[in-house]
Design brief:
This protein is globular. The chain has 331 residues and is of the alpha+beta class. β12 and β13 form a beta hairpin. The chain contains 10 helices and 18 strands. It folds into 3 domains: 92 residues, Rossmann fold; 53 residues, 2-Layer Sandwich (Dna Ligase, domain 1), CATH 3.30.1490; 121 residues, D-amino Acid Aminotransferase, Chain A, domain 1. 26% of the residues lie in helices and 26% in strands.
Amino acid sequence: MSAVLFTCAGQRVDIVTAFRRAGAVTVATDLNRLAPALYHADHYLVPPPVADPGYVPRLAEAVEEHEVELVVPLTDLDMTFLAEGRDELGALLLLPETEVVERANDKYVTHLFLEEHGIGSPPAWLPGELPGRLPFPVLVKPRRGFGSRDIFLARDQAELEFFLARTPVPSFVQARCAGEEFSIDVFCDLDGRCLNAVPRTMIESKGGESIKGMTIRDHELVELGRHVAETMGVQGPATIQCFRAASGSHAVTDVNLRFGGGFPLPLAAGGDYPALALALARGERPEPRVGSFRAGVVMTRFFSEVCLASGEDGTLQPLSKKTVEPVLSDE
């Protein structure tokens, strides 16, 4: 059985359990010892902060201890550190080279790259390079960010100046897209070939994460996902977000080099991305199956939980699902 290590696992119980079902031994890491995904993995550890010099070496120790064959980052937070330290890890890192990681993580650089390669992207400007007339409303967006954090809608010049003066992170300005928004979940091999692309609608999202959506059979979106992924140099998973205008043109707003928040949807539709990732870890070269998925699969999400109690060694362990006797009696 292949062992897989997930970094910054957080709440991604869906991904950890999907890899377990695909036959992997799972090792989850997160700085927060109350991260739910830790307790759905076979093993877990709490590493130093991602910027700490000991972060990658601690992961390398875990790779050796658990005979890990594949390392899968689940957020953008540590991707650059992992890409730069991939030779230290001792296992296959499901992430492209540092240059590609930086290209995707800096959203303004992503925009410039897409434009340079003839791929539709909403007009965007740095704060010091704004044109005289802007197509209000516009968005003030962080150059590096996730989960819709620090994004502000400016309806006029006064609001734009207000938000630019107060945004807590380096930001840029982007034209607001009209039309319907879609996400395309793609998976590429180590040569950058797109193995599959599954488009889905964005019925409802919360905090930047999809909580309701549906897979759709749309050949234009499938081809757009394949083209963007291969042009960007994706290796492993990516989530591509775009808008379709009334004219039928597409504008790509984001390329995230990880499994998206809507991961359960392409999985249920037959995307089978965990199995493809494990195949890469075994040194195999799966054939592309672009467009091979079931359309019309709908996802609606709900809250769940894991209850913990201190074990004999002081670590937190999932509480037994059996009925727990009350600590205090009424007598």
